Amino acid sequence: TEAKRLMTRNHWRGNVRELENAMHRAVLLATGAEIDADALRTPEGDALCSAPADPAARAARTAEAVTRALVGRTVAEVERELILETLDHCLGTAPTRPRSWASRSGPCATN
Prior knowledge:
The protein is an all-alpha fold and 111 residues long.
C-alpha cells in the first residue's frame, strides 16, 4: 500500500521514538480500519510525503512545532518532561535503569 511505501521510504531522524510517535498519530488520524497515506503526518502536521528535503527548512519547521507545543504549558511542566526525557535517554526507562543518576559524572556519562 501507499502508506507502507511511505513508512519504509521515510528517513526516521528520531529513530524508533519518531517512528513510534508517527504510528500513534496515524492511528488517531486514520478514518477507517486501516492506516492510509492520508493519516501519516509529520510532527508539524504535514503529509509525510511532503516533508521538506532541505535540512535547514526541516529544522526551522521542527523548531516552530516545538515552540507551538510549549504554548500554554507551565515552566514546571516543561522542566519535568525535559528531566524525564533526559533520564530516559541516558539511563533507559525507570524500571530498568542500571545505575542511579547520582552515580554518573555527567548527564550521559558511562563511568
